[in-house]
Amino acid sequence: MIKVAEELTNQEKQVYEGLKKVGATAEEKMKTADDVMRSIRLPKGIVNNALQSLIKKGYIKRVAREKSAGYFVVK
C-alpha cells in the first residue's frame, strides 16, 4: 500500500482516504463528491476544493457523467 505523500494537506489526506474507504479505487467503482462528504463528514466546499487539488497532483481522476462527476483513486 502506498503511503500518502507528505505534500498533501490534512484535508486532502482525509478526502483521499475517504475515497479509498468508500471503495473508489477504480473507474468502475467511482464515487461522487457527496459520497465522500458523507463518509468523512466534512463540508462540501472543503471536499470539493480538496478533490480539485488531488486531481492536479495526480492522486485521483475525475470522470464527467450526466448527473454528477465521479472520482476515483489512481495513485
Task: Estimate nothing, just give the exact number of structural domains.
Answer: 1
CATH superfamily membership, which one? Winged helix-like DNA-binding domain superfamily/Winged helix DNA-binding domain
CATH fold-level topology: Arc Repressor Mutant, subunit A
Q: Could you tell me how far the N terminus lies from the C terminus, measured between alpha carbons in angstroms?
A: 10 Å
The parts where pLDDT drops under 50 for at least 5 residues are none
Name the average pLDDT: 93
What's the total helix number? 3
Count of distinct strands: 2
How much is the radius of gyration in Å?
Answer: 11 Å
The major sheet is characterized as: 2 strands, antiparallel
Coarse morphology: globular
**Alpha-beta classification:** mainly alpha
Describe the structure.
With 75 residues, the protein is mainly alpha-helical. It has one domain: Winged helix-like DNA-binding domain superfamily/Winged helix DNA-binding domain (Arc Repressor Mutant, subunit A, Orthogonal Bundle), CATH 1.10.10.10. 44% of the residues lie in helices and 11% in strands. The chain has three helices and two strands. The protein has helices at residues 10-21, 33-40, 44-56; strands at 60-63, 70-73. Strands 1-2 form a two-stranded antiparallel sheet. A hairpin with a 6-residue loop joins β1 (60-63) and β2 (70-73). α1 (10-21) crosses α2 (33-40) and α2 packs across α3. The protein is globular. The chain starts with 9 loop residues before the first helix and ends with a strand. 23% of the residues are buried. The model has no long low-confidence stretch (mean pLDDT 93).
